[in-house]
Amino acid sequence: MKKVDLALPKLGFIVATRAALGAGLALLASSKLRQKQRRRTGVALLALGALTTIPALFFVRNSLKTDGETPAAAAV
Question: How far apart are the first and last CA of the chain?
C-alpha cells in the first residue's frame, strides 16, 4: 500500500492550486461578470492552477511511501 506523507504547508499549496484551477474554470463557464472581466480572470486563474500543478506533482511524488520506506527511498 502506498501512503503520501505531506507537510501541512505543502498540502495547503496543493489544495490552493486545485482551487485556483477550479475557480478559473467556473469563471469561464459563468455569466455573472462581464465577458471581458470573466475571460481575463478565468484565464489567469486557470493558468495559475495549471502552472502550479508541476510543483504540486513533485511534492506528491517525493512524499510517496510504500510500506515502511522513507519518502526519499520511495522516489528512487
Answer: 17
For residue 65, pLDDT over 70 is answered with no
Secondary structure element (H or E) that encloses residue 66, with its range: strand 64-66
CA distance 59 to 71: 10
φ/ψ (deg, to 5) at 65: -130, 145
CA–CA separation, 15 vs 48, rounded Å?
13
- Whether pTM > 0.90 for this model: the answer is no
Contacts of 62 (CB under 8 A, 6+ apart): 71, 72, 75
